[in-house]
From TrEMBL:
<keyword id="KW-0862">Zinc</keyword>
<feature type="domain" description="PDZ">
    <location>
        <begin position="184"/>
        <end position="258"/>
    </location>
</feature>
<keyword id="KW-1133">Transmembrane helix</keyword>
<comment type="similarity">
    <text>Belongs to the peptidase M50B family.</text>
</comment>
<feature type="transmembrane region" description="Helical">
    <location>
        <begin position="351"/>
        <end position="373"/>
    </location>
</feature>
<keyword id="KW-0472">Membrane</keyword>
<dbReference type="Pfam" id="PF02163">
    <property type="entry name" value="Peptidase_M50"/>
</dbReference>
<keyword id="KW-0482">Metalloprotease</keyword>
<feature type="transmembrane region" description="Helical">
    <location>
        <begin position="397"/>
        <end position="416"/>
    </location>
</feature>
<dbReference type="GO" id="GO:0008237">
    <property type="term" value="F:metallopeptidase activity"/>
</dbReference>
<dbReference type="InterPro" id="IPR001478">
    <property type="entry name" value="PDZ"/>
</dbReference>
<feature type="transmembrane region" description="Helical">
    <location>
        <begin position="173"/>
        <end position="194"/>
    </location>
</feature>
<dbReference type="InterPro" id="IPR008915">
    <property type="entry name" value="Peptidase_M50"/>
</dbReference>
<keyword id="KW-0645">Protease</keyword>
<dbReference type="InterPro" id="IPR041489">
    <property type="entry name" value="PDZ_6"/>
</dbReference>
<dbReference type="InterPro" id="IPR036034">
    <property type="entry name" value="PDZ_sf"/>
</dbReference>
<keyword id="KW-0479">Metal-binding</keyword>
Amino acid sequence: MTTVIAFILMFGVLVSIHEWGHLIFAKRAGMLVREFAIGFGPKILSFTKNETLYTIRLIPAGGYVRVAGDDPEIVELKPGHHIGLEFNKDGKVEKIIVNNKSKHPNARTIEVENVDLDHKLIIEGYEQDDEDTKLHFDVDRKAMFVVDERETQIAPFDRQFASKTVGQRAMQLFAGPMMNFILAIFIFLLIGLIQGIPVEQAQMGEIQPGSPAEEAGLQENDVITQIGDQSISTWEQFTDIVRANPEQELGLVISRDDVKQELTVVPAEVEGVNEKGDPIQIGQIGVLPAFDKNILGTLKFGFERTYETSKLIITNLVMLVTGQLSIDVLSGPVGIYDATDQVVQSGFSNFLMWTAMLSINLGIINLVPLPALDGGRLMFVLIEAVRGKPIAPEKEGVFHFVGFALLMLLMIVVTWNDIQRLFL
């Protein structure tokens, strides 16, 4: 149950902060945000606030912000349509009843001759019993379509995505991944404030009871200066040698209270993975690095860890694209849940670290120029900036539709691999 709660909270935070970035910059640019959704599929919970429908949906596989103009508008009125109109106190149309007009006895029914809800905001037409008198109606900017008794706000062109400048549209698309990087920096800063930041040298922190480190006589604050004939100056050098020598006797030279001592340790053999994600046996002695609490160091730590993690993820992504890594190393929601279960059991700090890494991963993946992702849409905006005119919406729509179908297929394959790994 702890893992389930942790996974739901983690998923909710990662997706919410991502979509919140899209939402904020859409509203700042004056776009009409129709829906802010966490998850996909059937709605579990929904409410409307400030023109936007907020929903939580059943399938925890992402989320979305639906901006007016992203998709074809819901209702398209044409000459010959019979509609009902209701008016506000200023005499402007505030409701356009498309069907079930009998449920709105106060609505004025007309046959449409001309309509412009993008620019002029007008409806012109005739009443059924007076086809000789052409009527003209001004439409309120926040008028509602009523279809099957469900109301949807109209979107004048200046409230639509396409009406905004290239910079505004690019920023709205980039804002989601940007918020994931900001979240990661914040989490790393929080970790630094809670537990401190790892010291650069190979200084011992907490020694796990019954571990090879305790059996060898290592104590907290011991500093490793040499292993065998190799001088040691950083924690990374120390751990690299330990990992590479499972069940091999290692001679250590340590500094304890400025006094040098010699110890011997035999790393236990445990299962790990190499850079390609393949399982291997590695050495482990059961010790954590020492931590130092320093405000300036913590600030540096937050940005450095975000940068280093980003660089590692991008490197692995390039290796995946070039075939150096197999698709089997990818994980979907099932694999992430399984990994989260293991991380939760190892402590709250590790869970925070895992959340930050996933946030960076979500930001980077969404910037990849793939169809239906932020990066794919951003690519079309940048192409427009270069060529001076947008690509035809029909062509862009086909690109995203086909790409989305392929991404769903990839998700199925990845999920199947995750399930197989659980039972191997």
